[in-house]
Amino acid sequence: MNAPLSLIPNSIKLPGSPAGDDPTDERLEDLYGELGNWDEAEALPDDLNTADARKHGRILSSLALLYLRHGDPSRAMVLSLAALSMGDARPSALLTLAESLLRAGDPEQAMSVLTRFDETDPALIETPATDIQHAARHYIRAKALHRQGDNIGARDALALARDLRVAADARKDDG
């Protein structure tokens, strides 16, 4: 049975979704205040569940990858965007979003996500992009360029993806 998200306990609320009767982080301070627990209300951090939000974002990214692999790029795209809004800016999450956008028919947006992949400061994320992820990035770029009609650019990006993959495999075998 599919129940609306507002009826499912501990469900994730996406931005702009209707609020249910359960207390949300934004209203928690008000609720403590209404109950007379001013000390509790003042002790709440400004960003109550950043770690929890990122954890939920990672779960949404995993779910997005499953939808993508099973041929539903539109749902994968929505879940990837939700994960990104929850703070999951890992390279794998960005690659899933780019591939979802590409398969959903929007190569321009896929390219803009790949630009974000390139511009993400490695110090700001838990795990920097691996060599394989860089190769995957260029492979997705090749497919996007091909969809846009830039066959020469696509061929160059594909060659770079292959070179990066071979180099990554060689390093893995040596190490």
TrEMBL record:
<dbReference type="Pfam" id="PF07721">
    <property type="entry name" value="TPR_4"/>
</dbReference>
<feature type="region of interest" description="Disordered">
    <location>
        <begin position="1"/>
        <end position="24"/>
    </location>
</feature>
<protein>
    <submittedName>
        <fullName>Tetratricopeptide repeat protein</fullName>
    </submittedName>
</protein>
<dbReference type="GO" id="GO:0042802">
    <property type="term" value="F:identical protein binding"/>
</dbReference>
<dbReference type="InterPro" id="IPR011990">
    <property type="entry name" value="TPR-like_helical_dom_sf"/>
</dbReference>
<dbReference type="InterPro" id="IPR011717">
    <property type="entry name" value="TPR-4"/>
</dbReference>
